Write the structure tokens for this entry.
Amino acid sequence: MLTVNVVKNGDRVIVATEGTIDTETAPKFNEALLDLDYTNLDLTIDFDKTDYITSAGLRVLLVARKKLSDQTLRIVNVNELIIEVFQVTGFSEILNYSAKEQDPVDCHLSFKALLKKRVNDGLAFVFAGREYTWEDVDRLSQIVADDLAKAGVKKGSHVGICSPNSINWIVTFFAVQKLGAIALLVNYGLKPDEIASLAEIGDITHLCYGAIPGLTDFGVFSAALLGGRSTVTYMYDIGMDRDFTERLSEYDAIREKYDEAFHSDDPSVVIFTSGSTGKPKAVLSSSFNLLNSVKAISAECSFTSADRACAFLPLFHVFGFSSCIGIGLLYGCVSYIPVNNKPATMIDLIREKRCTIFNTVPTMFLAMVGQPDFTPEALSSLRVSVLGGSATSESQMTMLRSLLPNNHFCNIYGMSENAVISMTRYEDTFEHVTQTVGKRVDGIEIEIRDPANGEKIADGQSGEIYIRSKEMIVCYYRLPIEKQPLDDEGWLATGDLGVILPDGYLKLVGRAKDLIIRGGENISPGEIADEVAKLPGVADVKVIGVPHEVLGEEVAAVITLKEGASFDEDAARQTLTAKLAKYKVPAYFVIVDKFPLLGSGKIDAITLKKDVAAILKMR
């Protein structure tokens, strides 16, 4: 869509455009210019609100330039992406243009363009004792991009990245972005068959894999990914035994390749999430979607290039991705990537590198301060920690604040579809931090609606949380229109229940969906129940989340048995471990005679959870 506004003052004319000038919209731009009287015309074209221009728009500018001199045709407020188009096409030599005064934190650039902008900014990442500058990342990603291009990756290709956090993960991500392909971020803790299922959902054709737990036997792993229903046709090793720095001599020969510019709104990343049905959804996003969420967090945390981040969260999560790559790109922070996710490793890294940022899930913080030899001095350099993924109790937050009085703890509420919805402020009260998920961030609209009919209800009443923003999901990839999350006015139903308090803070009161959140991991009960139901002797099963002091919730399988059957818990756990990721295997198996039912005949989940909690308490 393009808006063209023409303001005339005698022979002086200003033509201001808003939107993208491409094949479809260029005729409208051309028509506005053709209507002008070029006799003695002094023309200024204002691109202040113009995102991008393609060859169709360049032709319009060329015709106008033919009629005017470089003194009587000026293009002002040109963003960096359009300047790059001018330079690549040679239009920079024939047009008189001036750059737009840039926001120091510019989310209107693609990941590729932002990396290019950072190339001369020094240290970017530290991993396994080695330092990597932004220039290193640029050069190494160029080499990997060349490998992937030779393997058939091109603009629009779907490339999976399935690996623990590492410098190779980061290099591979930017390589994918350089080619204009879409990076699909895969949980490396999944089994081969589960990865194959995600590949099918996301149409992954190329899989970049690292040292994942499911890769105990490469023959079995590759058979699962390169056969059957899997869409994967090519696998690329990015494990840490591959040192891409050994190939830096290859860079000069390919440095000029892959120079196509991409728009910040181009689909560029897919993050998988689980719904209550148990089938993961592929959340399609752009760099603009994801980086604006990082900017929203920084509005409260004031990130700067002087910060040092301990980047612990997995990069396949929207929170982890934002806390490592996003912060670094936008603010120039150095990210220290731990070699494993052990609490002792985090403590040592923060102490040795004097990290100032540690965004994490409450589970990890509680595990760290629970280490036998923990001392508050080890984490004294921290100034801010954004906590997400699960709630923190009042007693837990009291303890954390007493141990680390100079660290500001902020709660964040978000989802894969919109990374940041609300968060507590840097200087919020203890009550706000422990009882709410803060106020909505800039650019987010929140409504509370009646779950029964979808009608908006007044503040102070609980209901389902709906959100709308420019940072939201593009869509669920390949799902039919009736399963897309947005309504006809652009609102997204979060599936969470909440209430907006009189002071504007949002309080979560439950989940409309049955999702279990264990240590920040979203777990679908339906997926687990399907596997438990296949076990010998099981008549029926309901998988629920039960409270856990550290993890927030743990997985419990509540089972009714067939008449005369017995249940072997150890054998069940062994069978499920072969089918499911470790964190999905139930911690508890509870055998009951029957399930409590509602008048409708459905299982009364609230009563069941209370009954199970009582049973477990007696064990």
In short: The chain has three domains: 2-99, 113-248+264-510, 516-618. The two ends are 63 Å apart (CA to CA). Residues 85 and 482 are 38 Å apart (CA to CA).
